[in-house]
Every structure is written in structure tokens, then in C-alpha cells.
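Good morning N.,

You mentioned wanting to compare the apo and holo forms, so I went ahead and generated the holo version with molybdenum atom. This is what I fed in:
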Amino acid sequence: MTVVSINRRTVKRLALGALSGLLAGYAALAAAELTASLVRPQAGPVTVIGGAAIDRTPPALKDFAIRTFGENDKLVLQLGILATVGLLAAALGMTALRHRRTGAAGILAFGLLGAGAALGRPDSAGAGDVLPSLVGAVAGSLVLFLLVGRVSGLPAEAPTEVPGQLSVGDGDGDGIDDGADASPRPPGPWNRRGFLVAAVTTALAATGAGALGRSLTGRRGRGAVASRAAVRLPAPASAAAAIPSGAGLPIPGVSSFTTPNQDFYRVDTALVVPRIDADTWSLRIHGKGISRPRAYSFADLLQRPLIERDITLTCVSNEVGGPYAGSARWLGVRLSDLLREAGARAPSDGGRADQLIARSVDGMTLGTPVEEVLDGRDAMLALGMNGEPLPFEHGFPVRMVVPGLYGYVSACKWIQDIELTTFDAYDPYWVKRGWARRAPVKTQARIDTPKPFGRVPAGTVTVAGVAWAQHRGIRRVEVRVDDGPWQEARLAEQATSDTWRQWSFPWPTTSGGHHLTVRATDGTGEVQTERRTRTIPDGASGWHSVFVTAG
Ligand SMILES: Nc1nc2c(c(=O)[nH]1)N[C@H]1C(S)=C(S)[C@@H](COP(=O)(O)O)O[C@H]1N2
Ligand SMILES: [Mo]
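and this is what came out, ligand included:
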């Protein structure tokens, strides 16, 4: 026996150990997802660990992820978790070659971690949530135990392969060394066929379990899909003002005045989009100063007089020039009506509560100033978005929309509870993570065209984009070429002060590279600040600038 062949044998053993680990990990996840489909899809280990990871992500890393992966951030996170699980499983598989019980126990330990994460989720439905992780771990450790048992016949060092030798194992007749790791014993023969059969069986069974789980989960959401399909949105009692024909400029590359639902940006922490059956949904309103707490069904809200408004929504995580802004026509119930009926009063009117906490079915909490909700602006519980029921991604059946405030302090999707409290008494989700308690939208102008580092032809080029300062409106937009003077851009008509406003600027180019910079002035006359700030704690500020080459 040469050194080379010993190494090759060792490598083969390790590879088979790693493969056993990977298959065990795969079986564990598949069994877990199947169990989750029966218990609660959101309780699956990848989802709960992903959720726990999101909750613990430092703001800087979250911003990096949003910047780098955009709306694929959740996909990247899930792939990262799968890759980590794969690596750990392979390592446990190799460990199990020598210490079979340790390997299997390792998988069980990860199952306990998953179960702990499941219990710690804010939307945890209780003890049943631990089942997916635990069932998965038991399945995984059994698979590992079994597969590694078949590999143990392949010796790492001793050249004991004797054709026709009978299985020796540990004497219990299964040819498997399943205990007393320390005491050396003659290994059984390498059972290639046995391993192969077990490995393929595991892979097939896991794939089947996973597919079954996915289809059961899909079926679970069917009630919600049907309830959404059955929604007939009534005509509003107070229709939105017609959008002036001059509000949308016919310039290629400019964000359309109304953002179609399928293009609307999405920012949330939900790894699984909640699919709520509108027929069983209800919303509770209670808390400080609410003398008549009550619950509303979806039908209750639909029967009320509805308002329809064009409102632009912006995310606090939007970088200067970033994509997280969109405008839609929302249909909903005036939130101030519901609150006043329940007995609420604005702090300026002697009300004791200054913060409204909105809670979603997935455990998210958002804190909105009560004063703003009651100050006459069109704060609403939206049921419709651009003429259809809310898409699931955007909060079906009901979400909040408050003009002028960043989404994280106002726009609760999948809302199920409204509680009046004080800023002193309670910090919602993002505030606990370092973001500001109060966050009115900052004035921003964005160059949509030309694109950064683009090439433009010689002659006059149309520079254009959108500007927003929700609830204050946009009074002026100016463009600067390189270090030249500020020149006034042409403004599209303003629909309302709650929507963004398009602008354009004819730029007579000179050949070469140029910096184009834009700034807006809001309806109060305040010029957008040049001072660059990060998104945290209360939104990015500074001027948007693009570099383009002309000629
Ligand atoms: N339940 C829930 N609601 C939420 C969030 C969330 O993570 N969960 N994110 C908020 C944030 S940060 C923003 S900017 C808006 C985005 O709404 P959209 O995804 O419909 O554009 O939703 C808000 N509502
Ligand atoms: Mo946001």
C-alpha cells in the first residue's frame, strides 16, 4: 500500500462523509418544509433563521445589502443560509465518519437552534412552530447515521479490503459501527451498493417531501387568493382629483407619474409574503385615549365611505438618486374618522397618546405620530392600489398610507392592530434598531435620464426626472452643469402636494464629460440641502448628481 493510495482512500472517505452530510442536510430541510406546510409555512427553518438574521443585521450591513442586492436582498440572504447549512452539514458528515453520534447530535443541535429561532419570531404562533425544525433535525440525523454507517466500511488507512470478506461491523449484525467510537475494530467491507441505494433513496424522498410541502403551502394560500379575487372595490365617496394631463411628461426614461403595481418598489422584512384571507381578517383599534375600542372586518371597511388619493411613497433607505419611491392611486378609509369614532384626540387637542403603533400579521411594528394622522392630511387604511385590491406584496388586505412620512413610520402592510400609545412608552421595530422615531420625507430631486455614466449625442439633450417633498409639494427644480450656475428646470404640472413632480431641462451639450446636478425647492420655499447624510437615522439628504459624456 503506497502513501498515494492511502491518501486517495482518505479523500474518498471524506468526500463520502461530506456527501452524507449534505444529503442529511437536504433531508432535514425537506422534512422541515413539509412539516412547516402542515403547521405554518412561516415556521420553516430557513424562514425563521432568515427572519432572526434580518432582525439582528446591523443597519450598515442592511444598507449595504439593499444597495448591493436591491430587492434581491432576501433571495441573497436565503441562498446564504442554504450555503451555510450545506457547509455545516458537509462538515458534520465528515465528523460523523469518526464520531457518528457526534455528527448526528450536531444536526439535532442545529434543529434546536432553528426551534429557538421559530419561538423567537414576533409572529410565532406558539409551541407548534418548533415542529418543523425538530422534525427536520430528527430526519437529518437519522439519514446521517444511516449513510455514514455504510461509509464506515471504507477504511481510511488500513488496507483491509479483502474480497469476499463478511461484514464484521460492531457485532450487531448491521455492518455498521454505531458506537464506542474510541475503540478500534475491524471495519466492515465498503458497501458501495448499499451506500448508493441509501443515498439515492434519501435524495428522492427528500425531493418528494420538499415538493409536497411546497404544493401544500401553495394550497394553503388559496383561500387568500380567492378572497382577493372576490373583492369588488366600490366607487369612492371622495374621488381623487383628476391627474392634470400635464403631470406626465412624454420623455423616455422618466418615471411614469403613476407607478404600475408590478413596478412598485417593495421593502419589507417578510421572507414569506403573508397571504391573508380577507374574509377572516380583522383590525383592532385600542389603546390610550381610545374610549370605544373596536374591531373591523374587511367588509366593515368596504362599506364605509372611501377616499381615493394619489400619494407618493418613499423608503427611508433610499439613497440619494435611489429607486425606492413610487406613486399610486390609493383607495381607503380615512384613518382619522376611525380614530375619532373610537374616541382619539390629537395631542394638540389634549389627547394623551402621541404615537400610533401599527402591527402587522408578521409581527412588524411601525410608529406614526398621532398628530400627523389627525391633522387633516389624507392618512388612510388603504384597500385598493391603482384600481385593484392591494397586491399581496403591498399589504393585502389592508395597509396604512400617510402622506409625507417615510414608509417605516407610516405604511404598515398586512396591518391587523392599531394601538395608541406614547413615544416614551414604546419603540417600534426600526426605532429599536437605531432609526429615528419621527421621519418626515426629505425633499429630493432625482435625475432619471440620462443614466449615470451614460453617453449622450451632441446637441441639445433632455435631462429629466422626478422630485418629491410629500405634503409640502415641489415649487422649483434647478439643474447645474459642472460648476455652472443653477438653471431653472421646466416643471410638469403638480398633481397634489402629496405626489412627486416630474421636471425636465433642455441641456445644450458641449463635447466631453460633465457632471449634472439637480436640486429641488419644496412648497414652503426651502431649498433641498446639499449636506450629504446617510440613510440612517432619518433618511438620506444631499443633491443627486450624474456624470455623463456628450458628443
Ligand atoms: N408589515 C410590514 N409593513 C411594512 C414594512 C415591513 O417590513 N413590514 N416595511 C415598511 C417600509 S420600510 C416601507 S418603505 C413600505 C414599503 O411599502 P411597499 O413595499 O408597498 O413599497 O412598507 C412599510 N410597511
Ligand atoms: Mo422603508
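DSSP finds twelve helices and 19 strands in the chain.

Happy to go through it together on a call whenever suits you.

Best,
F.
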